[in-house]
Automatic annotation (TrEMBL):
Belongs to the AB hydrolase superfamily. Lipase family. Residues 473-494 have a biased composition (Basic and acidic residues). The keyword Glycoprotein does not apply. SUPFAM superfamilies: alpha/beta-Hydrolases (SSF53474). It comes from Capsicum baccatum. Residues 472-494 are annotated as: Disordered. Pfam families: Lipase_3. One of its GO terms (biological process) is lipid catabolic process. GO terms for molecular function: galactolipase activity; phospholipase A1 activity. It is found in: Plastid, Chloroplast. PANTHER family: OS12G0614500 PROTEIN (PTHR31403:SF11), PHOSPHOLIPASE A1-IBETA2, CHLOROPLASTIC (PTHR31403). This is Fungal lipase-type domain-containing protein. The lineage of its organism: Eukaryota, Viridiplantae, Streptophyta, Embryophyta, Tracheophyta. One of its GO terms (cellular component) is chloroplast. Residues 218-364 form the Fungal lipase-type domain.
């Protein structure tokens, strides 16, 4: 005997019964099926409506247990739509030394102190600005330059309330075969074939200086646009620096110190540009009797340059309080270099992500872990080592991020800032009251879960920079004169 099983537990009778009984049962089954089909259709419509957020304002989503976590994330994300993206600025004037590592951030990292979290994100956004403002269009006349004049940079990038003013742009070049971002333009004639905009210097205004307890000078360094670029071209060769046994990676040092009289923007090296502006600012504010600090930040390659910058700054300004807040930084030098940085009193905080490969380079095998064998090997001058305190994050801690390995997405600075904003402690879940806009994670990656419906790699110029002229034709517009790189203007400003 065969039977048909229906979701509502309606059963067909034996197919060997009389025909009129079979017909009755068929009619009943068709009616019941139509009722169930209508019910399923209604439920499907309600589910799609909820997913698309087109339900009425007073409707409440009641997730099923199997989708509770995703629904919870979606509800929290939707509830934040009308809230600020930054925590309120608190007065840290009596605690700024602790926040900048005078006690090596003891007791402030795990759990992460809210005041420190706020400051880390502030400097991280300065590092992110070096990416957001870079003209990376290979067909642009100004490929490799900053798209905006220094006076407009923060306004254009939504950092006008940061409390800092840009004072100097930094340009870099290299004498070795380095990543293609140094020679990316496809044009025969371009603004510069040798140099690229690699960062900026800024200083806190009067109001921000009162809040943070001193006049803060910031140097922000850009990394390469894709992490694989510098890794593929890295020389993986240690080179002496200073007068002791300190050695640093040859390629990083080349970018920091290279110069050439034949170039337009690197007649002086990035190192010399920064030191000249730093001396001007320190002398100016010291003359006014102000306490001055130097905070250096950068992401990836920018984090490596930040360490070199800190080393040189401490050499030239031994009484200046210097701290480095880096993101996804690779190893830069050997153990002697690390020890010399410590002796100089430089405070270094590295923010890393467990799944990111870049902080593990160079020296994936030959690194600081071998120091425990010093009794057998002696001092190892030829191995790479990390420096400073570490705030280690985990991609899996955020319910907003996709699982799986995405090398580029994990390494992106916006992913780091998202994780910092949600980190409480290694034993806690991602904080539900995190302020930073989750959509920023997908600016240049595909890291957010699909339920959030945030487009991937959405950060770009409208129409990819093309504009319609007066005749209705699409063309690349001319830059405003004040936004065109000018060595004369740069020299005048410095």
């Amino acid at each position: 005997m065969n039977s048909i099983h229906h979701p509502h537990h309606l059963h067909a009778t034996n197919f060997h019964n009389h025909n009129h009984q079979i017909n009755k049962n068929r009619v009943r089954m068709v009616d019941a099926y139509q009722d169930v089909k209508t019910s399923k259709t209604n439920r499907l419509g309600e589910t799609l409506s909820n997913l698309l957020n087109i339900q009425k304002p007073y409707q409440k989503i009641n997730p099923t247990p199997s989708t509770h976590s995703n629904w919870n994330v979606l509800n929290i994300h939707e509830d934040k739509a009308n809230t600020p993206t930054m925590s309120p600025k608190e007065d840290i004037s009596d605690r700024w030394r602790d926040i900048h590592g005078v006690q090596e951030w003891e007791g402030l990292l795990d759990p992460l102190h809210s005041l420190l979290r706020r400051e880390i994100i502030k400097y991280g956004e300065f590092a992110q600005a070096t990416y957001d403002a870079l003209d990376f269009d290979s067909f642009s006349d100004y490929c490799g330059s900053c798209m905006y004049n220094s006076h407009k940079l923060f306004d254009k990038l939504g950092l006008s309330k940061s409390g800092y003013k840009v004072t100097k742009y930094i340009y870099a070049m290299s004498h070795i075969d380095m990543p293609q971002w140094l020679e990316r333009s496809r044009l025969t004639y371009t603004w510069s074939k040798d140099s690229n905009w690699i960062g900026f210097m800024a200083v806190s205004d009067d109001e921000e200086s009162r809040r943070i307890g001193r006049r803060d000078i910031v140097v922000s360094w850009r990394g390469t646009v894709t992490p694989s670029e510098w890794y593929e071209n890295m020389q993986k060769k240690l080179e002496p620096i200073g007068y002791k046994d300190s050695k640093v990676e040859h390629g990083f040092l080349s970018i920091y110190t290279s110069k050439s009289d034949s170039t337009r923007y690197n007649k002086s090296s990035a190192s010399e540009q920064v030191m000249k502006e730093l001396k001007r600012l320190v002398d100016f504010y010291k003359t006014k009797g102000e306490e001055v600090s130097l905070t250096i930040t950068g992401h990836s390659l920018g984090g490596a340059l930040a360490l070199l910058n800190a080393y040189e700054s401490a050499t030239n300004f031994p009484r200046l309080l210097i701290s480095v807040i880096s993101f996804a930084a690779p190893r830069v030098g050997n153990i002697a270099f690390r020890d010399e940085l410590y002796q100089m009193g430089i405070k270094i905080l590295r923010i890393t992500v467990k799944q990111d490969l870049v902080p593990q380079m160079p020296g994936i095998v030959l690194n600081e872990s071998l120091q425990k064998f010093n009794d057998f090997t002696g001092t190892l001058e030829w191995i790479y080592t990390h420096v400073g305190a570490e705030l280690k994050l985990d991609v899996r801690s955020s319910p907003y991020l996709k699982r799986g390995f995405n090398f580029i997405g994990i390494h992106m600075l916006e992913t780091y800032l998202h994780l910092v904003d949600g980190f409480v402690s290694t034993g806690s879940t991602f904080r539900s009251n995190a302020k930073r806009d989750v959509a920023l994670v997908n600016k240049g990656s595909d890291m957010l879960i699909d339920e959030l419906r945030i487009p991937t790699c959405w950060y770009q110029l409208a129409h990819k920079g093309l504009e319609r002229n007066s005749y209705g034709r699409w063309e690349r517009p001319k830059r405003d004169p004040e936004d065109i790189p000018s060595p004369i203007r740069e020299e005048h400003k410095s």
